[in-house]
Structure formats: C-alpha cells, structure tokens
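The following block was generated as part of the benchmark described in Methods. Ligand: flavin-adenine dinucleotide.
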Amino acid sequence: MIQKLLAEKHFSLSFEIFPTRSTTNKSLRIILKMIVKLERYHPDFISVTFGVGGINKKNATEIANYIKIIGSRALSHITAIGYTKKEVKRILSDLYIAEVRNILALRGDISPDFKSAQKGKPDFKYARDLIKYIKDDGRFCIGAAVYPEGHPECPDLKKNMDYFEQKIDAGASFFITQVFFDNSKFFNFIDQVKKRKLDHVKIIPGIMPVYDKSLLEKILHLSKASIPENLKHIRDTYEGEDFKKAGMEFSIKQVDNLLKNIPDNSGIHLYTMNKVKYIREIIKTLNIV
Ligand code: FAD
C-alpha cells in the first residue's frame, strides 16, 4: 500500500501515465514498453489516469495490472462524476481482481454536455464522497488531488484548504498536486497546510516537463496555473527546438529547486505525458536515482 511505503520513506519518486484512446494491442504494447523503461528509475509507484466516464477503463485496469506484474506499485485513478455507487462498486471489484490496492479518488471535470444531461442528485458530487465510499469498502489505500493555487472552479484558497481537509477526514491518506510551474505557490500552500496542522499527510508535488509550447499553453489554460517570469520569457521568445531546450532547462531547475526545498516527508511526481525521454533527462541530469 502506498500509504505504508510513504510513511517509511522520506522521499518518493513516482510517475503518471495515461492509457491511449486506442484500444488496439499495438497501442497497449507501446504503453507496456514505456512502463518497462520507466521502471529502470525504480519509481515508488506509477499512476494510471482514468478518462471521465470511464473511457479506456479496461485499458487502464490492464495497464495497472501490468505495472503490478513487473514488480512495481500501481495507483489507479478513478473519476466519480457520472457514476452510481453500484457502478463504482463494480470498478473497485475489477481493480481488486487486477491486484490494484491503491486508488487516486477524483471527482473528474464536468463538461457542459455532461451538466445538461445530468438528471437528479448524483451519488458522488465531490471527490470526498468517492473517498468516503472507497474508505468504507476497506480494501484500498486512497490518495486524492490537491491544488496549491486553488481549483479553476474555486480560486478561493481558504475554501480550497477546507475541501482539502474534508478529503483527509473522508479517508485520503496522501495527495498529489495539480501541475504548477511556480514553486513559491507550492511552498506557500505547504505553509498553510502546516498552519492548519494537516502536515501529517503526504503531499507530493506534481511536475510536468516543459518541452512543447502548445501543450504548455493548453495546461496553463486548463489548470489556471500561474506562469513565472522566466517561463513566460521562454514561452514568448522561443519556438521549436529552441523552446524545447529552454523549456527543459526550466523544468530541470524547477525540480532541482523542489528537491532542495521540499519538506522531508515528500517526493516528486512526474507527469510523463507518455514521453519517457524528457523524464529521463530530468532524472539523469539531477541524478535522482
Ligand atoms: P473535488 O475535490 O470534488 O473538487 C471539485 C470542485 O468542487 C473544486 O472546485 C472544489 O473546490 C469544489 N469542492 C470540493 N469540495 C467541495 C465542497 N464540500 N463544497 C463545495 N465545493 C467543493 N481528471 C480525470 O478526468 N482523470 C484523471 O485521471 C485525473 N487525474 C488527476 C490527477 C491529479 C493529481 C489531479 C490534480 C487532477 C486529476 N484530474 C483527473 C483532474 C480532476 O478530475 C479535476 O481537477 C476535477 O475538476 C476536480 O477533481 P477533484 O477530485 O479535485 O474534485
């Protein structure tokens, strides 16, 4: 269980991967090969995302099972929005059969289409409702998402902290942050966590390598993460290969700064975007493993 492992270690290294939309054997094989490459860096766990509404649920479960088979720990994401309790019960059973014991419990993003199609009271309104449900099931270790800069639907940092606390009360024992590029936002958040005496739970900063300008723009738009001056300069000055080089230098410095300043009880979670090459560059340059 990840909670036990995190309690025993001062530093953890983990990765996030996502199942492709394609369900062909070929695309599954590509993902499995990528996992083998990531395994060389001895991650403490590899998390596997889950599309809202369960797109690629079967693939995600197979991938998590494979991570387990090759001797690593899998953290399977579940997004609750649109699901009934009965459906989540089924998903939990499938994951349990696939030997997955760790779940990142999320609400998921609500699309406008989904909002208009929704009828009646949902079984899971917020992530905390899913966390409570999985906690009552009793078979899994539960993690959840946290937002150092607030959530796009709720920029109020005080409320954001209240909801974080509700997730702990519901049963989440560790957290992974939304992507951020300005480390000071993360450190401010950790200060607030300490002030609220909630620092007994592990909060792992989630970092995305910067190698593609349009991807960066997309993530900035979706997450509403702030962009520090040095990254803004890179975005506004470079294109193509020059952007990639400058972006990766930025990411390496960002992770280096985190490694030097994160609290003892923490780690690094790298959003791989399914591109091992950039993860390798960060890990090798900083000699993380
Ligand atoms: P919640 O904590 O329920 O928050 C949702 C909104 O409700 C927020 O605005 C929050 O402020 C507000 N809120 C929370 N509790 C209350 C309350 N009691 N009263 C009033 N308002 C409240 N998405 C995917 O589709 N698949 C994935 O695999 C996936 N993985 C992710 C992994 C990480 C580490 C992170 C940070 C995000 C991930 N997401 C994923 C995105 C996530 O689903 C969205 O950010 C989603 O909008 C919120 O999910 P949540 O679990 O944080 O929800």
